[in-house]
Amino acid sequence: MKHYDMRRDGRLLDEEQCLSILRKGKYCIVSTKDEDGFPYGVPLSYALVDQKMCFHTTNTYGHKLDDFALDNRVSATVVDDVHAFFDEGDFTTTFESVIVRGRLIKVSDDVLKRKVLVALCMKYCPEHKADIGAAMAASFDVTDTWILEPEEICGKRRPRS
Prior knowledge:
Blueprint: E1 12-13, H1 15-24, E2 28-33, E3 39-44, E4 47-49, E5 52-58, H2 63-70, E6 73-87, E7 90-106, H3 110-124, H4 132-139, E8 143-158
Antiparallel strand pairs: 1-8, 2-3, 2-6, 4-5, 5-8, 6-7, 7-8
């Protein structure tokens, strides 16, 4: 995978550390560009399936769907463990973040689509595990799932000193 130089490379995370942040992250911002070349960032829920970020959308219409169809190159950002503080006369924050850049692939296999939807449900509502099948059946035909095939994963952490 391609990596870019980082200004503070002492904060750079390895791939396993990045995956750890992605596993515990709550939401992400997926960034695309529209037909005018204007950037568009949309907050999405996600789950990791086979160590890849996966999303769900409606399959009817919307800005992000138009952008996905125009150009499947996207960037997804997850930020976690953010704490602001004042230290030795300076305002700063601790954080950990991961950026995944790659190509978004629409899932066409129904078995994989179900796997993604179950992973999303188990991440956000594990207490409703028994209801997943009925919920999936009710919305399966109007839902699409997507896998972000990573070309670059880059993470950074700024711990409190």
